[in-house]
Design goal:
alpha+beta; Lipocalin; 3 domains; 22 strands; 16% helix
Length: 370
Amino acid sequence: MRNSIAALALLCAAPLFAQQKDISGNWQGTLAADRPLRIVIKISKTEDKLKALVYSIDQGPGAMTATSISLDGSTLNFAIAPIELTYTGTLNPDGNTITGSSTQRGQTHILNLNHVTAENTWVIPEPPKPMPADAKPKFDVVTVKPSDPNTPGKLFTIRGRHLLTINTTVSDLITFSYALHPKQLVNGPAWMDEKFDIDGVPDIDGQPNTQQMRLLIQDALATRFGLKFHHDQRELAAYALTVAKGGPKLTVTSATPNTPVNFTFARLGQLRVANATMKDFCDGMQGAVMDKPVVDQTGLTDRYDFNLSWTPDESQFAVLGGYRPPAQEDPNAPPSLYTALQEQVGLKLENTKAKVDTFVIDSIQKPGAN
């Protein structure tokens, strides 16, 4: 009987020991995706609660915060909700390795992790230094060439010192650089939808913010496409952004004046806005989401931070390839954009006719050889 009790005690102690394992510290491994990606995870423990910062160091210096993390016995689970990523792994008995895999948007890849010292942790890239906030850059060197028709997608990005666009039409370049909706363009040439790639190095050191990226594309349009234009006011079908009944539900930003505006989608319909005026928000919505220009009629003058979560409809995100509804309806899906705006941030979006600034192209030509 005594031996049976002792054996039972040992069996009960084993999972208890696993639950008490301290996994604080640095873990790293290579995600076996289409392109191998080195992952560093920094786990800390405060008041018996685990926290984790996740770095995909081959994709840049930024850290992603785990929205949940737990160790149940020998099973480690964590999630990064904004990018729809989950991880499940098994901690080995000596606490030095975790065997597991991550799943993101239906795709699962092996990610085995090793517990490493600070000295043996892969070097996390330093964040790029920003370009001075008051800088007005032009391109020092820039090449423009027709896009490869076999290259999928569309891209505006910064890589090191280079600003790149891939598969971008003249309409894309103008609407991005001048913060316009395509319906604000007037008198475009027949070849407006031909695609070009731009690769240029600014004449000022540092990573440009969004407004400085716009200035650089404007420079390429002027110097390589010979763009000449003027503005005009015309009445167009548009969306008017106003304050909903009950007032705005917005947080005035605590960011410094030099902090860049953030307008980022974790996925279509899940938006993070930071340090943005209402005009910044309208520009972002008409540039990425809406099928008509968006006009700010809120009268709000501060800069704000807020999140917005909605279920898009088929009219939205055309510039990003369009929204494709899931095969089955999700009963827990967020509401439509119009409902989400009122419930979550106290704003209202309505169809209207409004005087809208239009961009009239006077002359433009295809770029010559580089």
